[in-house]
Design brief:
Structural class: mainly beta
Largest sheet: 5 strands, mixed
Strand order of the largest sheet: 16-45-43-42-41
Shape: elongated
Distance between the termini: 101 Å
Number of helices: 4
Radius of gyration: 43 Å
Length: 716
């Protein structure tokens, strides 16, 4: 070893350099030359812990790199081992020691480490570096997306992240794979894609060449239903046509789409979506309305139960979302009740937008007894808390009991051009003359009446011209029948003497009629019945623009019929520029014929958006008292099943059986189902771009009632 200006020495078998003293430099090193240092002994510190190896030393000045003045290191290969070092036992071997059990020693004791930060030295999975995972379903396997520091974990967390569904305790890495479309054992494979699938969960499958979910009697083998190798259900009578099977929608045509030897009506019970109810005799399904009340872009559901609680009645507001598996929906935005027995709240309701201008959606609601035993129409804000309707902001009531005020509430739109909607309110048993009764009346509510007018006779109204007319028994808003750009109101008086006793009539009222003081129905355009007892106008309805010619179309029912036994008819009138001329139901443009006189076809008439996908608006008709024939063609023992018909947009002419004109014909499964008592738009629930429908059946399920969801996607 060569040392400049030094003497090589050997100490303890080591080579070292000792520095020869030289001439001293001036103090302070003013010439830039370092001051001379004092030679010393230095110890190699290989582990950089501040203590050197006492067996590896040099003498010299200054200290070489990697050497320190302090010796005594007992293990210069371990930076944690040095004189006075603190050690902690690591019983669980996770690299973190128990901070409550320290030992001071230079040498590392057996099973000890220098890190004392362990939070549980009996569990190797819990330490400052480890994560635990939430085990919400308690199956012993954690959710990989729900981690937390292991030292903060409780009994609700586990050390692994192996669960693939932490909401289902039957799904975990130790579960058995079964045929259920789920990856039960969390290996990324479901059903028959997993070789470990339990064979006892496989079922017999049958040949299904058209892929409609129904097979023939040809056995394929035992497989998971998801395998696509066949169908679980048999019974397909045409395995080459995917629109023919027991699960198809029966259409009113010669073909038997459902393989049940029925080629006309689809049973409502074959519909797989809807809402159930759990209390009988409340009229659930008799009254439904839809509107986006909360501004989320989806149609909310308003359901009336007028017979609930001894006819106190209920009105339930529910959001559009919710189960449609026929279970009972219990959640609601609000539930309003009547003020007492006989209120029948929920029988007549009309969403009217922000009617009072306070920025909140409003409803007009009829209370048959009101606060003082008088019938009333109430303005109910949708921010009114659940409870009885006495919390309404305004009431419009009749001092006369038994008028039927509010039996029908009709949105006329802005018929007077003031920028606000007007509402027609009917009172079909209203009477003014002492020796008359049940002439009936219609009243007009304007938004300006809110807070200022409470008596319906203080505004525009009209009374039937003779006793028992029942003016206002039915009403409809016609979408501009004469092409002047303004809607009309169609008002039925089913026992009017036009031209003979109870021949009935319907009146088409214009904006000018509503501006006329002292208006009489004699001044209105009249569609009269044909003969005594014809009862024209028992039901009236708007058809929208069914024929697509730009004029609004409408319908009036009567007991006129092409057949001698006088069955009911729905008379269709297509709008045109000269529609405001008196006419008769016999002068209709088209006629839809029912099967018997008590069907009451047209009790529900609803123009709807395109349902069948042809780009034209369509029509839904309810006939809740419609009956089917028994095996010998008799209707007497098959009463009130109820029908719903969908009529495609077209210009009809001549007479047609309803089943011949319909695109869809639905029938209630049992007597007293009353299918079609109410129909309301449901929006596009199946995402096919076409509107769907709610169908009310208050007699279904032993009078508990149901709402059926008819989706356009069921059509072929």
């Amino acid at each position: 070893m060569m040392c400049r200006d030094t003497l090589v020495v050997l100490m303890a078998g080591l080579v070292a350099c000792s520095v020869e003293p030289g001439p001293a430099s001036p103090a302070g090193g003013g010439d830039g030359v370092p001051d001379p240092c004092t030679p010393g002994r230095w110890y190699q510190d290989a582990d950089a812990d501040g203590f050197g190896d006492p067996f590896v030393a040099v003498d010299g000045c200054p200290a070489p790199d990697g050497f320190v003045a302090e010796g005594g290191d007992c293990d210069d290969a371990d930076p944690a081992a040095f004189p006075g070092a603190v050690w902690y036992p690591d019983l669980d071997g996770d690299g973190h020691g128990d901070p409550d059990q320290e030992t001071r020693a230079c040498h590392r004791p057996e099973g000890h480490i220098a890190d004392g930060g362990d939070c549980d030295d009996a569990d190797g999975t819990r330490n400052p570096d480890a994560l635990w995972f939430v085990d919400a379903d308690g199956d012993g396997f954690g959710d990989p997306d729900a981690a937390l520091p292991s030292c903060d974990a409780t009994d609700a967390e586990v050390s692994n992240a192996d669960d693939c569904d932490d909401a289902d305790s039957s799904v975990s890495p130790i579960a058995v794979e079964i045929c259920d479309l789920i990856d039960n054992d969390c290996n990324g494979l479901a059903d028959e894609d997993d070789p470990a699938v339990e064979p006892r969960t496989q079922v017999p499958l049958f040949l299904d060449e058209d892929g409609d979910g129904y097979g023939t009697d040809a056995y394929v083998g035992d497989h998971c239903p998801s395998s696509g190798l066949g169908a679980v259900e048999r019974g397909d009578c045409d395995d080459a046509d995917p629109h023919v099977s027991p699960g198809a929608l029966e259409l009113p045509d010669p073909a038997d789409q459902t393989c049940d030897d029925e080629s006309t009506y689809a049973l409502a019970g074959t519909l797989t979506q809807g809402i159930g109810h759990d209390t009988a005799l409340e009229e659930f399904g008799a009254a439904i309305w839809t509107r986006d009340l909360d501004g989320d872009g989806a149609l909310d559901l308003l359901t009336g139960l007028p017979d609930a609680n001894s006819e106190t009645g209920e009105l339930v507001w529910q959001e559009a979302s919710g189960s449609t598996d026929f279970s009972v929906r219990t959640a609601s935005m609000a539930t309003w009740t009547g003020t007492g027995a006989g209120s029948r709240v929920g029988a007549a309701v009309l969403p009217v937008g922000d009617f009072d201008g306070d920025g909140v959606e409003d409803l007009l609601v009829t209370d048959a007894i009101g606060d003082d035993g008088e019938p009333a129409v109430l303005l109910l804000s949708t921010d009114t808390p659940s409870g009885d309707v006495s919390g309404s902001s305004w009431a419009w009531s009749s001092a006369v009991v038994g008028t039927g005020l509010g039996q029908v509430l009709l949105d006329l739109g802005d018929i007077d051009g003031d920028g606000q909607i007007e509402v027609l309110v009917s009172a079909p048993t209203y009477s003014e003359a002492e020796d008359y009764n049940d002439e009936g009346a219609i009243f007009l509510i304007d938004a300006d009446d809110v807070g200022s007018v409470s008596d319906p006779t203080d505004g525009w109204y009209a009374v039937g011209d003779w006793k028992n007319y029942n003016l206002g028994w039915s009403t409809a808003r016609v979408s501009d029948a004469d092409g002047d750009g303004v809607a009309e109101a169609l008002v039925g008086a089913w026992r009017a003497h036009e031209p003979a006793a109870t021949s009935g009539a319907a009146y088409l009222l214009t904006a000018a009629d509503f501006a006329t003081t002292g208006f009489s129905t004699n001044d209105a355009t009249t569609i009269s019945g044909s003969t005594a007892g014809n009862n024209a106008g028992r039901h009236v309805g708007s058809l929208g623009d069914l024929d697509g010619d730009g004029y609004g179309d409408f319908a009036v029912t009567s007991r006129t019929h092409d057949a001698a036994d006088g069955l009911d008819s729905l008379h269709l009138f297509h709008g045109h520029a000269r529609i405001l001329e008196d006419t008769s139901v016999l002068d209709d443009d088209a006629r839809l014929l029912t099967t018997k006189s008590t069907d009451q076809v047209g009790q529900t008439i609803l123009p709807i958006e395109d349902f069948d996908g042809d780009g034209q608006p369509d029509l839904a008709l309810g006939s809740p008292h419609g009956d089917r024939e028994d095996s010998v063609g008799d209707h007497s023992s098959w009463w009130d099943h109820g029908f719903v018909f969908i009529i495609s947009g077209q210009r009809l002419s001549g007479s047609h059986a309803l089943t011949d004109a319909a695109t869809v014909a639905l029938r209630g499964d049992d007597r007293l189902t009353w299918l079609g008592t109410a129909i309301a738009p449901a929006g596009d629930t199946d995402g096919d771009g076409l509107g769907d429908l709610w169908l009310g059946a208050p007699g279904a399920d032993d009078r508990q009632g149901r709402l059926f969801l008819l989706t356009s996607g069921l059509l072929p």
